[in-house]
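S2.1 Query sequence (Thyrotropin-releasing hormone receptor)
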Amino acid sequence: RDGMLYCIVSESLEYKTVSVFLVLLVCGVGIVGNIMVVMVVFTTRHMRTPTNCYLVSLAIADLTVLVAAGLPNVADSLMGTWVFGQAGCLGITYLQYLGINVSSCSITAFTVERYIAICHPIKAQTVCTVSRAKRIIAGVWIFTCIYCMLWFFLVDIQVSVDGQVQCGYRVKRDLYLPIYLIDFAIFYVIPLLLAIVLYGLIAHILYLSSLPNHPEASATTLRRSCREGPDSSGSRPIRSGHSSRKQVTKMLAVVVILFALLWMPYRTLVLINSFVSTPYLDAWFLLFCRTCIYANSAINPVIYNAMSQKFRSAFRGLYRCQRPDAACRATIIYSPLKWLTCQTYKGM
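Output structure tokens follow.
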């Protein structure tokens, strides 16, 4: 009955209008913002830091989510059926989970980088480098690309009795549950637990401890590649560098907190629905969950602009086609929520 009610509501004009408007708005803002993040880091020399390398990886992952999960959802809402064929079903599902998982890994990577840079400044001189960050990012993408190939065997085109085509899961709920729990642990629970511990240690150093008693090591650290990403400068005094580290750490902590909060409705709902006999299928709440996922992929550039002076200046320079450090150059589910729809639960 809940599944039928979901289908009835999702087919209403009011629901379709609100759904398409919200998704297009959030995805439009997110796509433009994340493209700007990638462009300012690639085209501005002083923005090429280890932290910003991870932010570029996060931006590309978020773009993948917005394009592969958000935009097909608009087509599905308007058409009421799957229009991308079997290849689209497999490819879009693969890409949207790839983006989701890489974004989680990228957040974990810059959290660890911040911890090393602030809590182990001597080690950071050799560990936190742009070249090492690029190797880590490459490893993250390769691992996630291989891991997500599992989805090629879990989804397929389904044709209902009335001839409606859907892209859905080909396995039953009891078979999918272990896969989901592993995914939930690796890409949500463990990164958040690690972030809580590491940011707690970082806060202890930045806010509860005095500045290091080794000026030479501190000054050298501030000049090296772990320059605190968007808002540091090796030429600043140690006190200024300490303040800059606080600012950057606050910004990255906000990214992690929003990741946890915006993914919580979807993760919690699916976790509950995985164990109850009658899943909760309120169409408007499911729309809220989807919107939160897309908002998580769209909001990071807004955070950078609000909390980072260097990102703000770089964005402004990009808008004016004027680089801050040089003259202008010629420069260049179907959503993860498929299983929350009535089609998914038919085979469960």
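The CA atoms of residues 181 and 278 lie 19 Å apart. The radius of gyration is 22 Å.
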